[in-house]
Every structure is written in C-alpha cells, then in structure tokens.
Amino acid sequence: MGRRPSGGAAMAWQRIQIMTAPRNWVIIKLLSDGKARRPSDMVRELKGEYKQANLYTAAWKLAAARVITPTHVAKESGGFVVGYRLNPKLKGVVASLEKAEKNAARRLRRVLRR
C-alpha cells in the first residue's frame, strides 16, 4: 500500500474525486454562474438528466465535501427554502477545470482531423 495524504491534502484529493464525477460536474457547471438554486430548480433546468432523488443525493455529497454550500433561497410565494451555491473558494478551480476541458476538446479535434 502506498502512503495516503493526510490532513488538508486528503480533503483536497477527496474534493477532486467528487468534482470530476460526470454527474456531479453537471451540477457544478450549473451553479458556476454564481446564482443559488433550489434542488427542484436544478432538476427543471437539467431537463431530465437527473431524477430528483439522484440530484438530492449528489447535492448532499457535494455539500459534505464543501464543494457547494447550502444557503437560503427566496420562494416566489414568500418565505425561504434551502438552496445551493458554489463554494466561493472553489470558483477559480472550477474556471481552470473548464478551461482545461475546452483545451482538451480542441486538441482532440485537431488530432482527429489529421
């Protein structure tokens, strides 16, 4: 067995593993615009990519890893309900991952054209 990272390195590695899961990445991209959303709004905006139960589970895992943070979101009928927002400390990480994803797609297209 190899050495395992301890302390902050272990938490950072756990976040990377959770963030790069395809189903979780969809939620992160949706929340990367800075607006807080309720889970029901996320289900509506993802248009069937997620069942509501799966979205609640994924949001719970992302919140446990502190990738997204629970917050209060105002309802149309008044009052507040729990919603989620991307952790402000991770906005730069998400932006760099999106940039790397675009560069990788561009390079792949170049290779496939040859």
Globular, elongated, flat, extended or rod-shaped: what is the shape? globular
CATH topology: Arc Repressor Mutant, subunit A
The CATH class assignment is Mainly Alpha
- Tally the beta strands: 2
- The fourth-level CATH homologous superfamily is Winged helix-like DNA-binding domain superfamily/Winged helix DNA-binding domain
Distance between the termini: 42 Å
Query: Helix tally?
Result: 5
Taken in chain order, the helices and strands follow as HHHHEEH
Which architecture per CATH? Answer: Orthogonal Bundle
Descriptive report:
This protein is of the alpha+beta class and 114 residues long. It has a single domain (8-113), classed as Orthogonal Bundle (Arc Repressor Mutant, subunit A), CATH 1.10.10. The chain has helices spanning 8-19, 22-31, 39-46, 52-64, 91-113, and strands spanning 68-74, 80-86. A hairpin with a 5-residue loop joins strand 1 (68-74) and strand 2. It starts with 7 loop residues before the first helix and ends with a helix.
Short description:
With 114 residues, the chain is an alpha+beta fold. The protein has helices at 8-19, 22-31, 39-46, 52-64, 91-113, and strands spanning 68-74, 80-86.
What labels describe this entry?
114 residues, single chain, alpha+beta, two-stranded antiparallel sheet, 5 helices, Arc Repressor Mutant, subunit A
Outline the secondary-structure elements.
Blueprint: H1 8-19, H2 22-31, H3 39-46, H4 52-64, E1 68-74, E2 80-86, H5 91-113
